[in-house]
């Protein structure tokens, strides 16, 4: 894991050397948090995307939500949510899930502005998501279209954190137990409306803190212990 981390830092520096001036270069200019840092001293950005589908190459990011965790506290004043004005009409089956209508997304911001804000918020933080492939693939593909290159970022995935905990039990569990809603229920966390980028980011942040608390360790675990 440690050598893997230094590989990430080396790659960040290589990408920084090639990045054009602008938001991506600014993001890459800030070092990642040290993996030896205790989690309670690590700045974390909980993030969620709503998308028009599951394929980053053919679908688009429809909305972005994120919120910051500092010293194991969720900073509500940092909450951010923005709908993106995507191209084309939205599919009915997608609207049923995310509840964003064509007239709403037509008033959204351009993807360039939203990604610029997101990269600014991500700089110097570990990124927290639930089921990392969605945010990772969509963000990397969108950045590649906007800036000609894809960024890297240190990721914590609450699905993976919870799966490691459940794997240590002697009883079997279902893959559905790893869904965000079901994991929150297992920790007696309140129910939120699903498929809103900000509420899902907040739900992920709360779940992460509950999972860390479940370890009941006297000392805060390190960032390295939860990174993908």
Could you walk me through the main structural features you see in this protein, from its secondary elements to its overall organization?
This protein is an alpha/beta fold and 228 residues long. The chain has one domain (2-225): 2-Layer Sandwich (Nucleotidyltransferase, domain 5). Helices cover 43% and strands 16% of the residues. It is built from nine helices and five strands, in the order H-H-E-E-E-H-H-H-E-H-E-H-H-H. The protein has a five-stranded mixed β-sheet with strand order 3-2-1-4-5, sandwiched between helices. It starts with a helix and ends in a 14-residue tail after the last helix. The mean pLDDT is 89.
Provide a count of the helices: 9
How is the main sheet built?
A: 5 strands, mixed
Can you tell me the overall shape? globular
- Which parts are unreliable, with pLDDT below 50 for 5 consecutive residues or more? none
Number of strands: 5
Short description:
The chain contains nine helices and five strands. With 228 residues, it is an alpha/beta fold. It is globular.
Write the layout of secondary structure elements.
Layout: H1 2-18, H2 23-28, E1 44-51, E2 61-70, E3 73-83, H3 92-98, H4 102-106, H5 111-122, E4 126-129, H6 132-147, E5 155-157, H7 158-167, H8 180-186, H9 197-214
Parallel strand pairs: 1-4, 4-5
Antiparallel strand pairs: 1-2, 2-3
